[in-house]
Amino acid sequence: MHEMALTQGIVDICLQHAAGQRISTVVIEIGTLSGVVPEAVEFCFSACSTETLAASARLEIRRIEAQGRCLDCSGVQPVERLYDPCRQCGSYALELLSGEEMRVVEIEVDD
């Protein structure tokens, strides 16, 4: 399960940036085409944060829908799967604009 390693990285990033303060909330974004299962990250978060300053933190996961731009007709559209054709012209020359990201967006700490 690669989500465990990814989640451990998230916890490590949060602890590093919290500078010794207790973390109350962590907000992350996960793209629909990232290959990461949000439910697995949520499950792993409690295990990875146990006995750390993030142990009682609330995890908020925001899903980022995939969007692509056709390089032939310049149409912007939602993308459900990699290598889907353009819905307007049928071209397979889509540039992915979003949907593959996974990042920590916000960390709230207790004062």
Question: What is the terminal separation in angstroms?
Answer: 35 Å
Task: Estimate the global geometry from the Cα principal axes.
Answer: elongated
What is the mean predicted local confidence, pLDDT?
A: 95
Q: Rg from C-alpha positions? A: 17 Å
Low-confidence stretches: none
**How many distinct helices?**
2
Number of strands: 6
Helix content: 25-40%
Spatial sequence of strands, sheet with the most strands: 2-1-6
Q: Give the class from helix and strand content and strand pairing.
A: alpha+beta
Order of helices and strands: HEHEEEEE
Please give the largest β-sheet. 3 strands, mixed
Measured by DSSP, the beta-strand proportion falls in: 25-35%
Description:
- There is one protein chain.
- This protein has a three-stranded mixed sheet, with helices on one face. A three-stranded antiparallel sheet has the order 4-3-5, with no helix packed on it.
- Helices cover 26% and strands 32% of the residues.
- Helix 1 (2-18) crosses helix 2.
- The model has no long low-confidence stretch (mean pLDDT 95).
- The longest helix is centred in the N-terminal third of the chain and has 17 residues, at 2-18.
- The protein contains two helices and six strands.
- It has 111 residues and is α+β, with helices and mostly antiparallel strands.
- It has helices spanning 2-18, 38-49; strands at 23-31, 58-64, 67-70, 76-78, 94-98, 102-109.
